[in-house]
Amino acid sequence: MDIRSRSDSEREAKVRESVAALEGVCARRRLDCEWELRHQAPAVLADEGVTQALMAAVAASAGLTDAILAEGLAPNTPANADGEGADEEPSHGSPPAAHAPADGGGAAFAAAVAGPLVSGAGHDAAEMARLTRMGMLFVRCRAGVSHSPLEYVAPDDVAAATAALHAYLAGEEAA
């Protein structure tokens, strides 16, 4: 079981709750059970300045993202090399930047819908936070499936993320 949280105390409480529930099920079924804590890492929060700069970069990149999508360079569905499928509706749940309302502005609309997210990351981001300011730019996956062979990121979402990352790095370079 992998339990993550932005707070060590919340994570530890959830572990205790989960172990108690498991032990309760085993007791009711007259089963023996045992568990072993294999890894525990402290929670690491993203740097607030990096988070704000990434959110600003998403909003600032809306025009570039919309221009890329308008050119048809990033169809919003898996397309064959000849572009078949580019006019189909996306199969992921939330409205992609390419289909945002005109007054919302593509990538800016998508950022407003998603807002800041908490990762609970136990990977490179946690290690990087020891060395420097850390933040993460999340890219929407179809049906929210991530870290799985079923994961799929639509080309329009790749375009939006690339434009946002470009805007963020340009802002960092200027700072």
UniProtKB/TrEMBL annotation:
Query: Which intervals of the chain are annotated as region Disordered?
Result: 75-103
Query: Which GO terms of the molecular function aspect are on file?
Result: hydrolase activity, acting on carbon-nitrogen (but not peptide) bonds, in linear amidines; metal ion binding
Tell whether Metal-binding is among the UniProt keywords. Answer: yes
Q: Which UniProt keywords apply?
A: Hydrolase, Metal-binding
User: InterPro entries per the record?
Assistant: Amidase_Cbmase
Q: What protein name does the entry list?
A: Peptidase M20 dimerisation domain-containing protein
Biased composition range(s): Low complexity = 92-103
Q: Among its keywords, does the record have Nucleotide-binding?
A: no
